[in-house]
Specification:
This protein has one domain. Helix 1 packs antiparallel against helix 2 and helix 2 packs across helix 3. The chain is an all-alpha fold. Helix content is 73%, strand content 0%. The longest helix has 31 residues. The chain has four helices and no strands.
Length: 145
């Protein structure tokens, strides 16, 4: 497998997952589905986690960095935590309806957990894709592919 094709594959995958996340989020907000279905943000955070992990792997591959599952998970965690902080700060200036208000220690915690699960599942899928294509796991260096 050539590096150029893996780079393109990763970029396309990252863009598709990001588009799924954004489309889902917009659909839910436009149709105000948070009120009747309070759990509706679970798929949104799951797809966000997959998108963040795919973007982290693509960035590592694009910059010829070492691929490391822990780096990708930590990147996903950092983005998720900063997003929850951004939501809390945003609610201080723009009040949401009561059913949309975030309480970081409960709702935000589970949002971060679901995002991490999405990121972990993407890592697992990516690792298995490499195993099928290469016949072995590559955890340290994508530039050898």
């Amino acid at each position: 497998m050539k590096i150029k094709f893996l780079n393109l594959y990763l970029l396309i995958t990252a863009l598709i997952l990001t588009a799924i996340f954004i489309s889902f989020e917009l659909f839910v907000r436009i149709h105000d589905l948070y009120k009747p279905m309070y759990w509706i943000d679970i798929p949104s955070h799951f797809f966000a986690g997959m998108a963040i992990a795919s973007l982290a792997i693509w960035l590592l591959h694009f910059t010829k960095g070492k691929y490391c599952n822990s780096f990708v998970l930590i990147s996903t965690l950092i983005v998720a935590v900063f997003w929850e902080i951004f939501e809390m700060v945003g609610e201080a200036f723009i009040l949401d309806p009561p059913y949309l208000q975030d309480f970081f220690f409960w709702d935000g915690f589970w949002d971060v957990v679901i995002t991490l699960i999405g990121g972990y599942i993407f890592i697992w899928l990516f690792d298995n894709y490499l195993k099928i294509k290469l016949g072995k796991y590559i955890y340290t260096d994508l530039t050898k592919i």
